[in-house]
Amino acid sequence: MRMIAPRTGAHEITLAEDQLEYSPLVVALYYDHEQKSALLLSRWTFTPEERAAIAAGEDLYLGVLTHGQPFQPISLAVGPEAFEQRVQEGALEKVHGQS
């Protein structure tokens, strides 16, 4: 599995760009009106082997480093439709900025 740029039309930034212990992560910036908070959307693609394992019923596991802080809410979706629907409903707003 590897990260790829979201390319949703929202402004994108790169996190951990100068942190050698982590891989840089490109995220699209949104504002969640319901939660009154920024939402960072990342996009991941699977290798053919991972796709086959998922198609065969294997589950996806998520690990999150909390560094001793409370766990942050997350959201997983297959494809962009769930996020785009929230944009259309006005719950999420794409943040636009300089590229």
Can you give a write-up of this model?
By secondary structure, the protein is of the alpha+beta class. It has one domain (2-94). It has helices spanning 48-55, 81-89, and strands at residues 2-4, 12-15, 25-32, 37-41, 43-45, 92-94. Strands 2, 3, 4 and 6 form a 4-stranded antiparallel beta sheet that branches. A two-stranded antiparallel sheet has the order 1-5.
- Quaternary organization: single chain
Q: Helical proportion?
A: 10-25%
Number of strands: 6
Order of helices and strands: EEEEEHHE
Q: What is the total number of structural domains? A: 1
**What ranges have pLDDT less than 50 throughout 5 or more consecutive residues?**
none
Beta-strand content bin: 25-35%
Give the overall shape, derived from the CA principal axes.
globular
Tally of DSSP helical segments? 2
Structural class: alpha+beta
Mean pLDDT: 92
Biggest pleated-sheet summary: 4 strands, antiparallel
Radius of gyration: 15 Å
N/C terminus separation: 26 Å
Write the layout of secondary structure elements.
Layout: E1 2-4, E2 12-15, E3 25-32, E4 37-41, E5 43-45, H1 48-55, H2 81-89, E6 92-94
Characteristic terms for this protein:
26% strand, alpha+beta, two-stranded antiparallel ribbon, 99 residues, 6 strands, globular, 2 helices, single chain
Question: Can you describe this structure in just a few lines?
Answer:
This protein has two helices and six strands, in the order E-E-E-E-E-H-H-E.
